Amino acid sequence: MNTLIKIAAASAFALSAVAPALADSSGALDTTTYWEENAVEVDPGVYRLMYDADNKMMRSDDDFAAMWAEATEEEQTAFRTSCAEWEKDNALFSDRVRQRCEMAAPYN
Predict the structure, then answer these.
(1) Which residues, 6+ apart, have CB-to-CB distance to 46 below 8 Å?
(2) 58: which strand partners?
(3) 13-53 confidence digits (pLDDT tens)
(4) Burial class (CB in 10 A: 0-12, 13-18, 19+), 3
(5) What whole-number distance in Å separates Cα of residue 54 and Cα of residue 36?
(6) Residue 89 pLDDT more than 80?
(7) Where would you tag: which of 5, 28, 29, 83 has the fewest CB atoms within 10 A of its CB?
(8) What is the mean pLDDT of the chain?
(9) DSSP 8-state assignment for residue 105
(10) pTM higher than 0.85
(11) Are the C-beta atoms of residues 78 and 50 closer than 8 Å to each other?
(12) Structural domain boundaries in the chain
């Protein structure tokens, strides 16, 4: 549990550090550029769920759903934590990201 808290805190810190630079960039999490430039700042499980590094593109909704079904409990928790942080920053929390976060809601 302590490790999970550290991961969540690191993710939150990383997002807060890059958020001001992205404030003018609506839907920044929907861009390949965001994920390529911030890969080391994002929890690896969250990165893997949102971005297909092999194909250098955002995952499709179907691909995300398949990845979500296979994600570990730790990856799912880290993703939900990231969603809470993204929601605080409207520049990051686009409609597409909101849909992903709704798919990851605790009851799903």
Answers:
(1) 11, 75, 78, 79, 82
(2) 51
(3) 444 544 444 333 444 787 778 888 888 888 999 999 999 99
(4) exposed
(5) 11
(6) no
(7) 5
(8) 77
(9) S
(10) no
(11) no
(12) 2-17+27-103
CA pair distance 19, 103, nearest whole angstrom: 23
Residue whose entry in the numeric block shows the structure tokens 């179907």: 62
Enumerate the β-bridge partners of residue 51. Answer: 58
Measured at the alpha carbon of residue 40, what is the angle toward residues 35 and 46, in degrees to the nearest 5? 60
Return d(Cα 7, Cα 15) in angstroms, integer.
Answer: 12
Which residue type is seen at 17?
A: A
Bridge partners of 57?
Answer: 52
Give the DSSP per-residue string, 19-59: HHHHTTSTTGGGSHHHHHHSGGGS-HHHHHHHEETTTTEEP
Q: Which residue do the tokens 């976060």 mark? A: 101
Q: Which two tokens stand for residue 5?
A: 């808290």
Q: Give the distance, in angstroms, between the CA of residue 108 and the centroid of all CA atoms in the same chain.
A: 17
Q: Are 36 and 71 in contact (CB under 8 A)?
A: no
Given the structure tokens 């810190």, which residue do they identify?
Answer: 13
